[in-house]
Amino acid sequence: MKRIAAITVLSVGWLICGPEISAQGADTDSGKKRELLETKVFSCLYRNPSTAFQRPDTLGVGRVESSYGYRSSEGLQLLSEGSSEGKFELIAEGRGLRANKIFWGKVGYSNSANERTTWTNVTDPFRVGPYQVADSIGGDTYSEEYLLNGGVAIPAGKWIMSGEAGYRAGHQYRKTDPRPKSTTTDLYGKLSIGYSFRNKYLVGVTLQAGKYEQELNINVQRDNNKFNFFVMRGFGMYHLQESTYASNFSWRYKGSNFETTLFFLPSEGSGLSGYSTMRYENIDSYPGGNYVPFSFKTLSFDNEIGWKKRTEHSFRFARLNYQYNLNKGTEWVFQYQKVNEVFGQYFLLSSNNLFTRKEVGVNLEAGKEWINGALSKWLIAKVGYQSYGQRYSFPVYRNNYNYLLSSMRMGVDISTAKRWVITPEFGCWYKPILEKEELLIEKSELYDASFKPDTEIYKANVAGVNMGITCKHNLRNSLQLYASLRGEYQFAGDLNRRYGQLTIGINY
Predict the structure, then answer these.
(1) What does the alpha-carbon distance between residue 476 and residue 72 come to, in Å, rounded to a whole number?
(2) What percent of the chain has pLDDT over 70?
(3) pTM of the model as a whole
(4) Residue 95: is its pLDDT beyond 60?
(5) Given a cut of 50, is residue 356 above it in pLDDT?
(6) Pairing assessment for the beta strands 84-98 and 159-173 based on DSSP bridges
(7) How far is residue 194 from each of residues 42, 50, 160, 261, measured CA to CA in Å?
(8) Which of 13, 187, 267, 452 has its CA 20 to 30 A from that of 282?
(9) For residues 31 and 486, what is the distance between their CA atoms, to the nearest angstrom?
(10) Residue 408, phi then psi, degrees to nearest 5
(11) What contacts 24+ positions apart, CB below 8 Å, involve 13-19?
(12) Phi, psi of 457, deg, nearest 5
């Protein structure tokens, strides 16, 4: 595994500083291949709506795609993920130019089933923090999700005015007692302004605001069934224990978020690019009534500086990315008092910031594509550092893990005379733990069941290999049919995880 890390470091340096290799006889489709790789690599930059005219694959393109993926794990999974998952997705999107304006839109649907998920009954468990309603029984979980978004970009001289809005809705449920069912809505809107600076760079700002809601209802249908429900607080601790016969139990998560992005990118194909994003979100967690016992705040920063260069026969890039994510959990203590013989009210006694989660990541990535007639080769390498830690103030518990990350991906596009493009790909990665610090509960049945198994995953030295093949067929009427098959195998000692996905679609 050390060899993988060393080879990756050398590859990053060579890809950035290595010599240009010219090629002869590049085909007319080589530019398109190069631009598609560029769009994938700099996808975060192109999320700003006012970059619509700079996106290489913007005008007159769309796709309809369906896929099915399956994951099976033997110990290498978090409790909330379950032992296996099957997921079907269907996506349709399109972009076009009308009256000098660019419009785009996307709709999507997904359906998934997770086997033996435990110790969470909520959707988006990392987003709502440790304050998750859970039970010790667990079971198979089923979910559906719907996506809808669209936007427009309008040029006005050197300015580009644009906007985008999106909506995600879904529900997740189990079919056996206890029967949790969560309903989620996630709405956002973006306003973005870009300015052409000296006709060389597009600089701009994007503002985003969103609203998030999740309602969880747990239904016990059988009269002789009795279960314990826990509102978790992290590190195996819980705030509320509810034991009922044939009854309902509900919990809600409600919040809002704001995001600001500053960005710049070259108007032509080569040059420096970068962005800086700040995001803030606050989600309240409560059972109803006139009190909110928990609040989970997120403050995150995502910064990147990159460089790319296009030539007739190659595309080369490098980028450095820094991410910082800070979560804080506030616990409010209330006392219930009767106002009269019929009504009562909760009164606030204290407020404490007790839970903290911090994630840091620094990654350096570089890649290159070579075009030579009907053959296109590409290589991407990445090295990085990641840190993940949690802390509870009273009583004092903490865990912190630092990792090294190295990865490499490579592929070849082979074009045939019969309008086929075949792309085999291969990749490998290694994520060893460099340092760990733990001060955890020594003996607790609830801790051993709900928290300890996940900490063992965080402490593992995980490696993975993946491979895939994509076949594309260009039809005479500008349509392109494609299919891909991908697989990945992850392992850490005796633990492993396997994943495969089949995708079929059409580009137009």
Answers:
(1) 40
(2) 88
(3) 0.89
(4) yes
(5) yes
(6) unpaired
(7) 17, 6, 5, 12
(8) 452
(9) 25
(10) -145, 135
(11) 13/366, 15/316, 15/318, 15/366, 15/367, 15/368, 15/379, 15/381, 16/318, 16/366, 18/368
(12) -70, -40
